[in-house]
Amino acid sequence: MTKRPSSAGFVSKRHRILAVVHFWAPTFKWGISIANIADFAKPTDKISYPQQIAVTCTGVIWSRYSMVITPKNWNLFSVNVAMAGTGMYQLARKIK
Q1: Torsion of CA 47, 48, 49, 50, to 10 degrees
Q2: Which of 10, 61, 63, 81 is packed most tightly, with the most Cβ within 10 A?
Q3: With contact defined as beta carbons under 8 Å apart, do 63 and 77 qualify?
C-alpha cells in the first residue's frame, strides 16, 4: 500500500515555490530604486536620459502588470511605483 501525499503538503510546496519565484525578483529590484535615490545628489549633467526613461517605463509597465495578475503582487507593485517615481524625478531634474 502506497502512502498518498496529503493536500496540505502540496499546498505548502506550492507556496514555497511561489515565494521563491515571486518574492526575490521584486526584492532585488529595490536596489535599482535605492541606487536612483542615491543619484539624486549627482549633478544633472551626469544623468542619462535613456537610463531614466528605461527606469520610468519599466516602473509604469510593471506596476500595471502587477495589478492584473492573480494573485496581486504588492511587492512588485510597490517597487515599480518607486522606480517610476524616482525615474520621473530624475527626468524632471534633467529637463530643468
Answers
A1: -150
A2: 63
A3: yes
Contact in structure between 47 and 96 (CB atoms under 8 Å):
no
The predicted-structure confidence for 1-11, as pLDDT tens digits, reads as follows: 666 555 555 55
* CA dist., res. 56 & res. 62, Å (int): 10
- The CA-based angle 48-23-50, given to 5 degrees, is 10
Q: What angle do CA 82, 83, 89 make, to 5 degrees?
A: 90
pTM here is: 0.74
Q: Which three cell numbers stand for residue 35?
A: 541606487
Length of the chain in terms of residues written: 96
Give the separation between CA 42 and CA 47, rounded to whole angstroms. Answer: 7
Domain extents for the chain? Answer: 28-95
- Per-residue pLDDT tens digits for 36-57: 999 999 999 999 999 999 999 9
| Owner of C-alpha cell 527606469 | 55
